[in-house]
Amino acid sequence: MMPTxxxxxxxxxxxxxxxxxxxxxxxxxxxxxxxxxxxxxxxLLDMLGGRHRWPTWLEKRSWYAQxxxxxxxxxxxxxxxxxxxxxxxPPCQGFS
Length: 96
What we know:
This protein is of the alpha/beta class. The chain has a single domain, classed as 3-Layer(aba) Sandwich (Rossmann fold). The protein contains three helices and three strands; from the N terminus they run βαβααβ. It has a three-stranded parallel β-sheet, with helices on one face. α1 links the parallel β1 and β2. It is globular.
C-alpha cells in the first residue's frame, strides 16, 4: 500500500506532483487562492485524477484552513492514523 499524504498550501500542485513521483498517494490538497486551486484541479485532479484519493466529503475547491476546519472537523479527525505525511509549502511572498 502506498504511503498517504495531505498537501497544505498546495498552490498549483508542485509538491503533490513530486510526492506522487516519490511514491505517495495524495489524499487532498488545501489551497486558499481560487486561481491556484483551479490550476491544481486541472493539472492533478482532472488530468491525473488516479493519483489522488480525494475524500467524498470534501468539495474540490479552494479552502481557507479555518473554513475547512470549521466545516469538516470531524471528517478531518477521522483521518487520524491514516495519513503518513502532512506536507506544506507555506507562502513565501515575504521572502522572495
